[in-house]
Amino acid sequence: MINPIAFSLGPISVHWYGIILGTAALVGLLLAIREGKRFNMEPDFFMDLLLIGVPSAIIAARIYYVAFQWENYKNNFADVFKIWEGGIAIYGALIGAIIGALFYVRRKGVSFWRIADICAPGLIVGQMIGRWGNFINQEAHGGPVQESFLRGTLYLPDWIVNQMNIQGTFYHPTFLYESLWNLAGLLLLFWLRRRPFLRAGELFMSYFIWYSLGRFYIEGLRTDSLDFTGPEWLASLMNSLWSPMSLLFGEAGAMTYGGNIRISQLLALLIIFAAIVIIVVRRKVVPGLAKYSDPIERKTVKPVSANTGK
Q: Under which pathway is this protein filed (predicted)?
């Protein structure tokens, strides 16, 4: 097992998880700054956006998780703030980051869609790198598998296989599946953003479609999913959509809380549908919809002045 503590400075222990997440944010920022230069956007714009987006994402990720696990927190409210004990959700983080970005770009007088497009590769590369923090902590893994599957079928190196051995049982390295899926998505976004047919906002929506498609199938292997008990027809539909995954990876992971529908899987399907609808509707409804390659215009934001009574 890899020691989750990278090094210590006196009584302060620095964890690999924090280093990896910090690296993920930095790489995402650098990608956004580099692409922003093509549109004459200052690096400070994206640095300030990161300073707003990261806290917003962490707070929303925790609220999202606690909301679906309120029974475990309502009598221990102090535990709500113990995020170092685990319990944050990526979809909640995305919601928080988007809300923070909306307020920021509005103050700057810049189109949210244009900035979201520039940041899309940074988001997916951040998730790609961030999943390795789960690997270090031996969390967010899938159900049990044979060691021979990891070595003989997936041909994984010893350092990954050994880390997937948790108290004598080997597990699906779902962190790796999602990280590789996000790497493919990053390359796809790089290709898409140079296509002449791409309109403003569509790279951002493409990110959501790609990420959510992978999340739907990978989530089915996990054993720590937030879930609930829903109608049988919906559970049957989702199981049918997921069933091709079983041909490659075996049975789905056990439901953590005894429900029949994984929240992240359902949300992934809804996001895919919503993103496609948004792309189609914006192309039909918005007149003169800007292309991705068009210059980014800034609107003049009038300062709020005090009423002098004159």
A: Protein modification; lipoprotein biosynthesis (diacylglyceryl transfer)
What pLDDT band is residue 188 in, cutting at 50, 70 and 90? very high
Contact, 121 vs 182, CB < 8 A?
A: no
Query: Of 60, 63, 68, whose CA–CA distance to 101 is shortest?
Result: 60
Phi, psi of 293 (to 5 degrees): -80, -10
The structure tokens 């359902």 sit at: 266
How many Å apart are CA 110 and CA 127, to the nearest integer? Answer: 25
Predicted TM-score (pTM) above 0.85: yes
Length of the chain: 310
Residue 257: how many other CB atoms lie within 10 Å: 15
Q: Which amino acid is at 9?
A: L
Q: In what order do the strands lie in the sheet with 144-145?
A: 144-145, 169-171, 165-166
Q: Is 131 assigned a ligand-binding role in the annotation?
A: yes
